[in-house]
């Protein structure tokens, strides 16, 4: 597994070692030992899977302290534009975001530490998205930021007219409303 740094400290891309032969392919989608050696010790406790169609945008989500979640995300089918906003107040990149294309083809995984708002937009016809979390889902402790907050200036790589959000996500507040400066 290759580890590639991103523009934001702590967010890293993982590229698995792919074995291809006449039958198809094989790769280790997660190895605790490799992860610990190359990224760090994280105790993942929940695995999630969602399916979404073209234009779906889920985000930008986080859980409030002390229920924050580090996530290891990947695409099993299709392609997404995965976006993470740095909410760590002591970080030099506070309020900045990093975006990575994750696809069935590139098999990239993204590790997102605690302290980020996470979201993705679906670029392909259909997407199966899987992720590991190091804290359980805690209803009532969910936070979020509007995906279209002009202050964040995120290019989601799909036309506005095609974007499909949940009712909950349409009600989210702006970055400035959520984080007192
Ligand atoms: C996230 C989650 C949701 N649910 C339930 C609550 C709800 O009824 C239903 C759908 O939930 P949501 O609409 O919040 O699902 P979704 O919009 O896919 O939420 C996810 O978005 C991505 C971007 C993330 O980063 C995740 O952490 C999570 O917030 O599933 C769980 O039971 N466990 C979970 O861990």
Automatic annotation (TrEMBL):
<feature type="active site" description="Proton donor">
    <location>
        <position position="131"/>
    </location>
</feature>
<comment type="pathway">
    <text>Carbohydrate biosynthesis; dTDP-L-rhamnose biosynthesis.</text>
</comment>
<feature type="active site" description="Proton acceptor">
    <location>
        <position position="61"/>
    </location>
</feature>
<protein>
    <recommendedName>
        <fullName>dTDP-4-dehydrorhamnose 3,5-epimerase</fullName>
        <ecNumber>5.1.3.13</ecNumber>
    </recommendedName>
</protein>
<comment type="function">
    <text>Catalyzes the epimerization of the C3' and C5'positions of dTDP-6-deoxy-D-xylo-4-hexulose, forming dTDP-6-deoxy-L-lyxo-4-hexulose.</text>
</comment>
<dbReference type="GO" id="GO:0005829">
    <property type="term" value="C:cytosol"/>
</dbReference>
<dbReference type="GO" id="GO:0019305">
    <property type="term" value="P:dTDP-rhamnose biosynthetic process"/>
</dbReference>
<feature type="site" description="Participates in a stacking interaction with the thymidine ring of dTDP-4-oxo-6-deoxyglucose">
    <location>
        <position position="137"/>
    </location>
</feature>
<comment type="similarity">
    <text>Belongs to the dTDP-4-dehydrorhamnose 3,5-epimerase family.</text>
</comment>
<dbReference type="GO" id="GO:0000271">
    <property type="term" value="P:polysaccharide biosynthetic process"/>
</dbReference>
<dbReference type="InterPro" id="IPR000888">
    <property type="entry name" value="RmlC-like"/>
</dbReference>
<dbReference type="Pfam" id="PF00908">
    <property type="entry name" value="dTDP_sugar_isom"/>
</dbReference>
<dbReference type="GO" id="GO:0008830">
    <property type="term" value="F:dTDP-4-dehydrorhamnose 3,5-epimerase activity"/>
</dbReference>
<dbReference type="InterPro" id="IPR011051">
    <property type="entry name" value="RmlC_Cupin_sf"/>
</dbReference>
<keyword id="KW-0413">Isomerase</keyword>
<dbReference type="InterPro" id="IPR014710">
    <property type="entry name" value="RmlC-like_jellyroll"/>
</dbReference>
<comment type="subunit">
    <text>Homodimer.</text>
</comment>
